[in-house]
Specification:
3-stranded antiparallel beta sheet; 21% strand
């Protein structure tokens, strides 16, 4: 038994990247998320995370109605259906789905600590202890600004960390330059390491089709969101068997058009751990792959790793972890070695809050304000 909720705290935080990167919709500086801590009447604490700094206010608005509730019963109601969520569907006219995800993650963390088991064990047991991930590369503001510098970065990831899989941002520069960049990256990492691309909806269908001969020659094994619409992507699909992936869980479009082939989500975008498990099962039933994307603090990253450790169907995830310049958990952000990130092996999520780091990240948000995800004009659509 996990006790009853005695307190719920929430803080908006900023965690920057070590250098902002360009992608087709703007410039990505870092994360402005919400950290949540739920404390029980018997002294256990659970950590959660929400996708936006605005969710801190929503969590705190929900808190009075949750004090005194049994943690297991509340988590169970969230696991089974949306009844508990719907009971608090609005707070000051704002949807609470992201806030509920943070609370639900914290309740899983508490349940694991109460049982002396990891979340993966609560989900049925570990099928793997290390989660396969990609390295990410992109044009960045001060570090990798040329094709040659990006290729050198990738070569260093191979030599220093044994990186085995790579994924890179494209549709940010003219196609001829990007094809030269990708050729240099392929030369730098060798012929056998996987190379995937993320266009963030930035290519026109005719551009993507025109690039396919070069992409096939480079042995590109996947493209995320190649075009502005999936109707356009379906046109590209007629010319290639390279798999396409997407962040939107649109099962009807996938069934109708045959694209995307894989959904790339997280416990935050799915709405919590239980909903993530259901989404993965739905992907498997529909013949779609499922991967985790990166771009969370250590709390949600740990939740994704715990799910990936328990569910065989989860494929190789994405990893921005090496680019994150800070974190709120003890020991900082886990980073890949030899293409894998280890699953935290403590009870619950397996991570603990670093109070000093939390204060630093809270102060950074107070000083700098929100890291707007799209804080630059969209790049031209090539």
């Amino acid at each position: 038994m996990s006790g009853r909720i005695a307190a719920i705290e929430a803080w908006p935080v900023n965690v920057p990247l070590d250098d902002p990167y360009l992608f087709a919709i703007g410039t990505y500086r870092g994360l402005s998320h919400t950290v949540v801590r739920v404390t029980t009447d018997d002294g256990l604490t659970g950590l959660g995370e929400a996708f936006s700094w605005r969710d801190a206010e929503i969590v705190l608005g929900l808190a009075p109605s949750l004090i005194g509730q049994n943690c297991d019963e509340l988590r169970g109601s969230l696991d089974i259906d949306a009844t508990a969520r719907n009971a608090y569907a609005q707070f000051d006219g704002v949807t609470t789905e992201r806030a509920w995800a943070a609370i639900e993650i914290a309740l899983w963390d508490i349940a694991g600590k109460a049982a002396g088991k990891s979340v993966a064990e609560l989900l049925g047991g570990l099928v793997r202890n290390d989660i396969p991930v990609t390295e990410y590369f992109a044009y960045r503001i001060t570090r990798e600004r040329t094709p040659e510098e990006i290729a050198m970065f990738c070569a260093q990831m191979v030599s220093d960390y044994g990186s085995t899989h790579f994924e890179g941002k494209v549709a940010t520069m003219p196609p001829d330059e990007e094809m030269r960049m990708l050729q240099l990256v392929r030369d730098a990492i060798g012929p056998d390491r996987e190379l995937r691309l993320d266009a963030n909806l930035g290519w026109r269908a005719e551009t993507a089709i025109g690039l396919l001969p070069a992409l096939h020659e480079l042995n590109i094994t996947g493209i995320e969101e190649p075009c502005g619409t999936w109707e356009e992507a379906a046109l590209v699909r007629a010319h290639t068997d390279i798999p396409f992936s997407a962040h939107e869980p649109d099962f009807s479009t996938a069934a109708r058009l045959g694209v995307p082939n894989t959904l790339v989500l997280s416990v935050l975008s799915c709405g919590g751990i239980a909903r993530t498990i259901r989404t993965i099962a739905k992907c498997e039933a529909a013949g779609l792959g499922f991967w985790f994307y990166s771009g969370e603090l250590g709390i949600a990253t740990a939740a994704c790793l715990q799910v990936a450790a328990a569910v065989p169907f989860v494929g190789r995830g994405q990893s921005l972890l090496r680019m994150q310049a800070d974190d709120v958990v003890l020991g900082g952000t886990a980073v890949p070695r030899n293409g894998f990130v280890p699953v935290p092996n403590g009870p619950g999520l397996g991570v603990e809050l670093d109070d000093v780091a939390l204060a630093r990240c809270v102060q950074r948000f107070a000083d700098d304000g929100e890291y707007v995800i799209y804080d630059a004009p969209p790049l031209p659509r090539f």
